[in-house]
Structures are given as C-alpha cells and as structure tokens.
Design a protein that fits this description.
The chain is of the alpha/beta class. It has 2 domains: 184 residues, 3-Layer(aba) Sandwich (Rossmann fold), CATH 3.40.50.880; 114 residues, Homeodomain-like (Arc Repressor Mutant, subunit A), CATH 1.10.10. The strands form 3 sheets. A 6-stranded mixed beta sheet has the order 2-1-5-6-10-9. The protein has a two-stranded antiparallel sheet with strand order 3-4. A hairpin with a 5-residue loop joins strand 3 and strand 4. Helix 1 runs parallel beside helix 5, helix 10 crosses helix 12 and helix 11 packs across helix 12. It starts with 12 loop residues before the first strand and ends with a helix.
Length: 348
C-alpha cells in the first residue's frame, strides 16, 4: 500500500520589525496585531519577529523595556522589513550599520516598510529618492527639509510602491499593514484579520490624515451612520444623490463632508467599497462575474470588468486565479513570479 504524501504547507511570510529606543509601543503593537498569530480561527500566513541594532533591553516611550534578542542579521532572511517609528528624528543620524542592513534587505528583494517616523530610516537609506512618501503630519516638514529628494505628501494615510511603503502615524500604521495583507493574501483574508482585531476594513491610502479633531465627544455631521447604511446595501444601485437624501443634505454638502472626513468624493468611496466586495466574492466563491456584478451593485459583467481593471489593472479572472480560496480554506499564497499582485500593480 502506497501512502500519498501530503502537500507542503505554504511558507510563512517573515516580517521582521526593526526596533530603536525609545520605541513606540503603539506603532509596534499595530504591526504585531496585524502580522502576528491570530489563533486557530485564521490560518497563519506570517511569522512576526523583532530585532534591534544592539540586542538586549530596548527602552520604550511607555516607561518599560523590551528584551530583544535578535540583531540586524535577522533582516537577512526577512520578506518584509518593518520600521515601526524611529525616535528621535532630529539631531541624530541613523547608524550606518542599520542603513547598510536595510539597503541589503531591499537589494535582495525584501519589502521595506516605514510606519510614521520610520519613513526617516527609509529616506536616509535612499529608498525614497524621487518617490512620494507619507509620515505623521507633524513630521512632514522635517522629512521634506532633511531629504529634499523625497516627495513628501503630508495629507495621505499611506503610500505603497510595492518594494517600499510608508504611512502616517498612529492608526494609519494598522491601515497600511492591513493594506499589505490584502495585497499579499487577498481582500477576504485581510477582512478576517480586521474582524479579529475588531476593526473596520482598512482605510484607503489616499484618505486624509486626521491632523486635528474639532471637538471631544461625538463628531458633528459624522458620516459613520451613512457609511454603515451603504455597506449593508451594496447590492443596490445607490447613487450619490440617494446618499445625500439619506443624509438630508444637498449633494454639494455631502461631497464637502466626504472631502473633509475621508479625503475622497462619495462616488469614489462607494466604488472602492464595491471593488472590495468584488474581490472578496472572487476569492471565496465560484459565482459568475455577472452574478457578482449584481451582488455588488455594478449592474453588469461588462461594467464590473471595466471598473475592476481601472482599479487593479487586472481582470476578475486573473485576480481569482491568484487569490482563490480552495476547499481546505487555503489560498492567498504568494503568487508565482510574474503573477498578478494587487498592491504592486496599483499602488496608492
């Protein structure tokens, strides 16, 4: 009797966070919550580790130390190198050994990600020369002055170029990490991670940073009730005019509120939600494109294919082949060389 060998499980994508004292515990936690083990309910796709230039206790901004045992050599086998903040950003230079290790990782094909002030490390390594980059709004001027060759965008949440990515501060780091998971593993898997974290799906990178909150307590004219209402009715051909009626405002006022609160127009936000729903259905079902089009409110297969290609630069069929979830619950594995990778084809 011959026993059939079981298929090898997919290799885990190795994410290594590069820490530096005084380390922001919140930025590190945002990345760890997205990439760490989520327990038996979500198949593991990532291995999350930390390292530092000098292994040992790493002082944090929260008043306690982290014991980090791995040094810079951990970056040599990382698939993603992540810098979750870097303080202080003024008055000191990034150590040459750190810059050399980051550059080596990038040259061999690792993705390098800077969250908040972590963008300063990427800029110092020359990885952002001639490229758009995001950082915390309060640090944008400093980044632009210190690295004039970098095109700093002080408004957006994050910018993904495929090989390098940067984000604004605080929760925007989680948005970027979820975006990267969606690019690696598909929208459905990223949604499962977001739900496990009790978070809404990540915000689009083009949305505005929240530089200042106008008041404490409930935000006046919040779009949240409308967004929830629309999300439950994506199968219906909802127009911007209908959204305005629902909110009891004019279309002009609704557009202004979307611009102020989300940084995009209501039509663009609605289309992004329909595309996200399309991606999940392509990954998790065998439904024909025509059926999916009606379920997400895009009216026809022709319209869905056109909109899908405009957003992701690929076809629904190619996307389904890359990220189809099989009967065992697997899928979303890293595509073969030359295969479609959404986050790389349509970087924000």
């Amino acid at each position: 009797m011959t026993l059939r060998s079981l298929p090898e499980p997919p290799a885990l994508h190795r994410v290594v966070a590069l820490l530096h004292p005084p380390q922001s515990t919140f930025l590190l936690a945002c990345a760890a919550e997205v990439f760490a083990d989520h327990g038996p309910t979500i198949p593991a796709r990532y291995a999350f580790e930390v390292c530092t230039e000098r292994p040992g206790p790493v002082r944090t901004r929260a008043g306690y130390d982290l014991l980090v045992t791995a040094g810079l050599d951990a970056l040599e086998s990382a698939d993603t190198v992540l810098v979750p903040g870097w303080q202080p950003v003024s008055g000191t230079e990034v150590p040459p050994a750190v810059l050399a290790a980051v550059r080596r990782a990038h040259r061999r094909g690792a993705r390098v990600v800077g969250i908040c002030s972590g963008a300063f490390v990427l800029a110092a390594a020359g990885l952002l020369d001639g490229r758009r980059a995001a950082t915390h709004w309060a640090l944008a001027d400093d980044l632009a002055v210190r690295f004039p060759q970098v095109r700093v965008d002080p408004a957006v949440l994050y910018v993904d170029h495929g090989d390098v990515a940067t984000s604004a501060g605080s929760a925007a780091g989680a948005d970027l990490c979820l975006h990267l998971v969606s690019a690696d593993q598909g929208a459905a898997y990223a949604l499962r991670v977001a739900r496990q974290m009790v978070m809404p799906p990540h915000r689009e990178g083009c949305q505005l940073q929240y530089a200042e909150l106008p008041t404490s307590g409930p935000v006046a004219d919040s779009l949240a009730p409308l967004l929830d209402w629309v999300a439950e009715r994506l199968d219906q051909p909802i127009s911007v005019a209908e959204m305005a009626v629902r909110s009891r405002v004019s279309t002009r006022t609704l557009t202004r509120r979307f611009t102020e609160q989300l940084g995009i127009s209501p039509g663009r936000w609605l289309l992004a939600r329909r595309i996200a729903a399309t991606r999940a259905l392509l990954e998790e079902t065998d439904l024909p494109v025509e059926t999916i089009a009606h379920r997400v409110g895009l009216s026809s297969a022709v319209n869905l294919r056109r909109r899908f290609h405009e957003a992701l630069r690929t076809t629904p069929a190619a996307y389904r082949r890359a990220f189809r979830v099989d009967e065992a619950g697997e899928g979303g594995r890293t595509p073969a060389p030359g295969a479609f990778t959404p986050g790389r084809a349509a970087a924000v």
